[in-house]
Amino acid sequence: MVIFKGDNILKQQTGMPAKWLFAGSFLANTGTSFIWPLTIIYLHDTLGKTLITAGFVLLCNSLCVVLGNTIGGFLYDRWSHFYTILLGSIIVTCASTFLMFNNGWPAFPLGLVMLGFGNGLNLTCINSFATVVKNKRTSYIFNILYFMSNLGMVI
Prior knowledge:
155 residues
């Protein structure tokens, strides 16, 4: 049982079922695997940008994922497990909604960067939650998470 401090109130964090962790990892990585090829096609064919520009947009997205991973780990350790993943989910939802209505040239890369940051927060939380799964060895949990991540990328 982990005790963390959030909103100046001590709360108790209990373990989570492994099946939900695996499902979350699979879905997050399946969604991420669609971003790369579809972004290239959309930017090049629909918006008429060069492949170099599309690659740079994906680079910015990846850098924001790394930034989200770093900040997500810091927030998970020092703030709140629940609120960190909630923040990441809100950012992803807002970025996805923004991209539905603003999918032109300057707005699309900005939305993609926001999406990358939120995904970075969430992916770090998924990996961090693996340490609080009860009744399973940690090595087993991380091996299955790795498998689900790869399965999500393949599909």
